[in-house]
Amino acid sequence: MAKKVFITGANKGIGKQVAYQMGKNGWTVLIGARDESRGLAAVDELKAEGIDAVYVNIDLQHPETISSAVSVIKSQHSDLAMLINNAAIPGDMRKPGYEFTLDELREVMETNVFGTFDLTQQLLPVLEKNNGRILNVSIPIGMSDFFNPFAYKMSKAALNTITQSLAQNFSQAAKPIEIFAIMPGGTTTDLNGNMTGDFMKTAPEAGKLIADIIFDGQNHNSEIINFNGKVADYNNGLF
Ligand SMILES: NC(=O)c1ccc[n+]([C@@H]2O[C@H](COP(=O)([O-])OP(=O)(O)OC[C@H]3O[C@@H](n4cnc5c(N)ncnc54)[C@H](OP(=O)(O)O)[C@@H]3O)[C@@H](O)[C@H]2O)c1
Asked: Which residues, if any, are the signal sequence (predicted)?
């Protein structure tokens, strides 16, 4: 199997660290970024570490860039073996849900759900041909007094559903594709204003945690895996 992965939002934060970990494991890393200079800077940084890194422009808010990224992959990287849907925005994490405008919700959903789904769907033929894997980087969506960012949680609930539902579709149709999610837990990045604290990990720690699961040799189809390695159960015994 070719070792080639496309990671969205890989110019910084957790995505860049997953790229680093996979690159050090001999993978070619396609660095998805919406801004060319930020994308190329990350590629240069990874190359300086001896990693085979390539910049691919993609802005999940702009469908035409999703299609052009897919064209580049189909023509130049048709041996792609893994897609990591990492790019995301949180929206306003403090504002109560009832104060969100539809436009604000749409922006978060467009990036974290619709753009991400569009990319995933368009890459399915390539991934299916290569017995590929899809990893969605996600968060827990259960109720919590400490963590209740409305738009972010709403979008990741949809992403978690996409993960489980497509996994069922793939296995029922005997498609040779695996889809799963990892929730790395609180990590100090731009997404949360670089929040620190005892319960927070660094981006390199999150990248290593994710890579360890990617490389554990297991089939994780349908699983939404927490940072402690446990598979989340969102069914609450209802089904
Ligand atoms: N940080 C945490 O505590 C935490 C915890 C659990 C899960 N996660 C998940 O981990 C993933 C990475 O987050 P992070 O913490 O590393 O955040 P980050 O440092 O803010 O990185 C987010 C990445 O997504 C990119 N991005 C944003 N909007 C985009 C768009 N429209 N098109 C393409 N790329 C776009 C950003 O690009 P720009 O540089 O151009 O903005 C950046 O590369 C996310 O899915 C997040 O939900 C994070």
From this structure: none
